[in-house]
Specification:
Two copies of one chain form a homodimer.
Chain A lengths: L3 E5 L10 H8 L3 E6 L7 H6 L8 E6 L6 H20 L4 E5 L9 H8 L5 E4 L4 H8 L11 E5 L4 H10 L2 E5 L5 H10 L6 E5 L7 E3 L14 E6 L5
Parallel strand pairs in A: 1-4, 1-5, 2-3, 2-4, 6-7
Antiparallel strand pairs in A: 7-10, 8-9, 8-10
InterPro entries (chains A, B): 4pyrrol_Mease, 4pyrrol_Methylase_sf, 4pyrrole_Mease_sub1, 4pyrrole_Mease_sub2, CobI/CbiL, CobI/CbiL/CobIJ_dom
GO molecular function, one term (chains A, B): precorrin-2 C20-methyltransferase activity
Pathway (chains A, B): Cofactor biosynthesis; adenosylcobalamin biosynthesis
Chain lengths: 233, 233
């Protein structure tokens, strides 16, 4: 059946794909691959390329890396119309997204355009924080403790308040203010309760030790910090 | 290699297992299956039973359904010592857990006992809220909005504050105060922004409509509410 399928591909290790995702990938006629930069490799494509059928059409598409939905809108609209055309021609069209498609993904904007226009199916993926916590044998949250998942786009004061107000926290998009965040965690003696990981499950994975000097001028975009104050490293 | 493997099996649909989980399941000598009640079926076992080797030893274990870690402790210690024994005899021992092992799972208590005593590997699983959001084509959180994952064990006033203070919320363990939570969501006109789902991906799945009367005396233990104030149903 012709439909649009958004597929969460997990954080990097192809074995973290679900059986459902692999089955869907193998049945696609067209795969839309998002690129954040005009030139560059697609991390998402690397994860799935072993599971695609040979004659699949791979369509790389550029999505501007901007926060503002209005700014993204023209690109989303153009790509959505193209996808709609392929669906109406009877194709099965997939879109791959790192991690989980329903959490901070560009896929959400495509979904808004396409949901009531063509058949849409979305398949969940393992979120980076979940893979890191399991991979490093460290709980995200236990018992009655809430888990606060926080994208660090705002001011460091706001990030500090979140870190002080909660016991179990996932800090996402930390690359913009990485040095300030590490300094803040040190000030509050939270480094022994923090996991800091870049590119989890990929060839260039880095797990930072709390005692590292963190003179990292360019920290990877794919860096996550997990804090669990109830768990000593 | 002899080791203890904690496996997140996702919320119910066996196809939401990861490739890594399936591979691990197929190599197990012994599988520890947790039961919340002394008699009853194991939801986790139903998910994985198609992927086990024929001569695997399945060991059902009762874990008391209590919140208090101290109360759970004797049961955890006994089972941990038994697991340690099997590992020392050279067996590969698995433990299955619904959803993700690092989020509100009994597995975390076993991990605390066993981590520095035997080799431990943990495999992440799709969390129920992630599967529900994708399955119903509804984002969990977008852009700069934090996601607050909240286990509803406390008072309704505390749950109400969480719901009013945040835009994207997952309410877990809602079964104890289900009617009060629904009444509170209605009071704040939040029903059109709420997904209410029981037993997602299982035979007895129920997706509640916002206009339902909710005269459900016994709501399932596996019920989740996802609220996204930026998304109209």
């Amino acid at each position: 059946m012709s439909e649009f399928i958004g597929i969460g591909v997990g954080p990097g290790d192809p074995e973290l794909l679900t059986l459902k995702a692999v089955k869907a990938l193998q049945q696609l006629d067209i795969l839309i691959v998002p690129y954040g930069r005009l030139k560059g490799e697609s991390e998402a494509l690397k994860i799935v390329e072993g599971y695609l059928k040979k004659d699949i059409h791979i369509l790389p598409k550029h999505f501007p890396m901007v926060q503002d939905e209005a700014e993204l809108s023209p690109a989303i609209e153009t790509i959505s119309l193209e996808i709609k055309g392929y669906i109406e021609q009877g194709h099965r069209v997939g879109f791959i997204t790192i991690g989980d498609p329903m959490l901070y993904s560009t896929y959400i904007y495509l979904l808004k355009y396409l949901l009531y226009q063509v058949p849409v199916k979305t398949l969940p993926g393992i979120a980076s924080y979940s893979a890191i916590a399991s991979g490093l044998n460290r709980p995200l949250a236990e018992g009655n403790t809430p888990l606060f998942i926080y994208p660090c786009n705002g001011k460091i004061e706001a990030i500090e308040k979140v870190v002080l107000d909660h016991d179990s926290i996932v800090l996402m998009k930390v690359y913009k203010q990485f040095d300030a965040i590490i300094k803040m965690l040190r000030t509050h003696d939270l480094m022994p309760f923090s996991l800091i990981v870049s590119n989890y499950g990929k060839e260039n994975q880095v797990i930072y030790h709390p005692d590292d000097l963190f003179t990292h001028e360019k920290i990877s975009y794919f860096t996550t910090i997990i804090i669990n104050k109830g768990w000593q490293l």
